[in-house]
């Protein structure tokens, strides 16, 4: 789990949104070369999706999702309290993945990197209406991708 921060460099792990924007492909390559990931995911959500934000900000939930993804899957997500920043993140990175206008939020976009190209794009919607079920749904979706697409 890799948070993307706005207005701060974060604490410990993660990237600020400017660095992530400028170095997206390079960061993915660096994660691959360092053995930090075999595949990647971006979580997209509306600013008004408080339940998903609570899941991603909860230390216990974050720790469980981080242990699950491990060195198999780097999951990037925006950690921002700004609606314009959330809208920018969604539109910019959905465009980078070639899915702008094609997905409903919230969702998780999975992909692998081969050189500078993203391959094997998979989109999974997140449908659970509350925090408890939402955590289990996100956990299950990440777990299924790791088992079927990465083969841990």
Kindly describe this structure:
The radius of gyration is 14 Å and the shape is globular. The protein has a single domain, classed as Glutaredoxin (3-Layer(aba) Sandwich), CATH 3.40.30. The mean pLDDT is 91. A six-stranded mixed beta sheet has the order 2-1-4-3-5-6, with helices on both faces. It is built from five helices and six strands. By secondary structure, it is α/β, with parallel strands linked by helices. The protein has helices spanning 17-33, 50-57, 59-69, 83-97, 131-150; strands at residues 2-5, 15-16, 39-44, 73-79, 107-114, 117-125. The protein starts with a strand and ends with a helix.
Question: How are the elements arranged and paired?
Answer:
Blueprint: E1 2-5, E2 15-16, H1 17-33, E3 39-44, H2 50-57, H3 59-69, E4 73-79, H4 83-97, E5 107-114, E6 117-125, H5 131-150
Parallel strand pairs: 1-2, 1-4, 3-4
Antiparallel strand pairs: 3-5, 5-6
Helix pairs in contact: 2-5, 3-5
Supply database-style keywords.
152 residues; Glutaredoxin; six-stranded mixed beta sheet; 5 helices; globular
> What is the average of the pLDDT values?
91
Rounded to the nearest angstrom, the radius of gyration is 14 Å
CATH structural class: Alpha Beta
Low-confidence regions = none
- What count of helical segments does DSSP give? 5
Percent helix: 40-55%
Count of folded domains = 1
Structural class by sheet pairing and helices:
alpha/beta
The CATH H-level superfamily is Glutaredoxin
Morphology call: globular
Under the CATH scheme, the architecture is 3-Layer(aba) Sandwich
Lateral strand order in the biggest sheet: 2-1-4-3-5-6
Multimerization state: single chain
Span of the ends, CA to CA: 17 Å
User: In this structure, how is the largest beta sheet organized?
Assistant: 6 strands, mixed
């Amino acid at each position: 789990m890799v948070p993307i921060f706005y207005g701060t460099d974060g604490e410990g792990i993660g990237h600020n949104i400017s660095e992530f924007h400028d170095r997206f492909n390079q960061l993915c390559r660096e994660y691959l070369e360092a053995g930090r990931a075999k595949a990647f995911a971006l979580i997209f959500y509306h600013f008004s999706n408080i339940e998903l934000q609570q899941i991603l900000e909860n230390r216990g939930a974050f720790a469980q999702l981080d242990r699950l993804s491990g060195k198999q899957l780097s999951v990037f997500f925006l950690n921002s309290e700004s609606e314009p920043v959330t809208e920018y993140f969604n539109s910019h990175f959905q465009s980078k993945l070639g899915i702008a206008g094609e997905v409903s939020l919230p969702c998780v976009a999975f992909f692998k990197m081969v050189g500078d190209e993203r391959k094997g794009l998979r989109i999974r919607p997140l449908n659970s209406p509350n925090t408890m079920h939402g955590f289990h749904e996100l956990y299950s979706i990440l777990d299924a991708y790791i088992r079927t697409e990465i083969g841990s």
